[in-house]
Amino acid sequence: MKSLLRNSAVALSLTVSAMTVMAVPTLSAQAAVPTEASLLKLIKVTKVVEMMDDMTSESRVTEQVMQGLLAAMPKDDLNESQRQQFDNIVNKYSKEIASSFDMQSFNQQIMGFYIDSAKQHFNQQEVDAQITFYSSAIGQSIINKQPAIMEDYLAKVTSQVMPTIMKTSIQKTQDIMPRMAADIKALTAK
User: Fold this and answer.
1) In terms of pLDDT, which residue wins out, 181 or 78?
2) pLDDT-derived band of residue 58, with 50, 70 and 90 as boundaries?
């Protein structure tokens, strides 16, 4: 019985040692900083560039700027003709704002930021696993649904949350400004 226990202990010890030796390369691979090439591949399979191009297209930026301006400006008192003219004016200036951006440079900068951040937070094994998953049919299905999900999500946030935030912010600012001005005046009077 002693011999069996000793042999079992030795076998267990050898097994643990073997697993430890085998785990060392795995742990090293897990801790490896992902390569830029693998991160660029991840960006490609997750269609980040296509989504950025879609999100930052002039028409999309114009639409986003217009939605922001429309949410911030009261137009309830306008008749139908005035409302159409108002929309045309906002659209005109939204396009001017959108055309002032260098989207290609902007997208390159965003990709650089993503790569830098991913190198800090992902290891090579995690990047490889993401590439494998997002290269699969189910992964591509999820990626292909992301723009519609984001569009739906942002539409809800823009239409339901932002007007409330803007209204509350304006009201609170109007409430705070006189008190803040008085506090600053008192400070400078000292």
Assistant:
1) 181
2) low
Query: Is 46 buried (19+), middle (13-18) or exposed (0-12) by CB count in 10 A?
Result: buried
What stretches of 100-156 show up as alpha helix (H) in DSSP?
103-121, 124-135, 137-156
Mean pLDDT, the chain, rounded, equals 77
Instruction: Give the Cα separation of 105 and 122 in Å (integer).
Output: 25
Cβ-contact 68, 94 below 8 angstroms: no
The DSSP code sequence of 73-109 is S--TT--HHHHHHHHHHHHHHHHHHHHTS-HHHHHHH
pTM of structure: 0.54
For residue 34, the 8-state DSSP code is P
CB 40 within 8 A of CB 49: no
Q: Quick check: 45 and 135 in contact, CB under 8 A?
A: yes
Q: Distance between CA atoms of 133 and 122, rounded to whole angstroms? A: 15
Q: 10 Å Cβ neighbour count for 122?
A: 18
Through-space distance between the first and last CA atoms of the chain, rounded to whole angstroms = 91
What is the helix (H) or strand (E) element at residue 190, kind and residue range? none
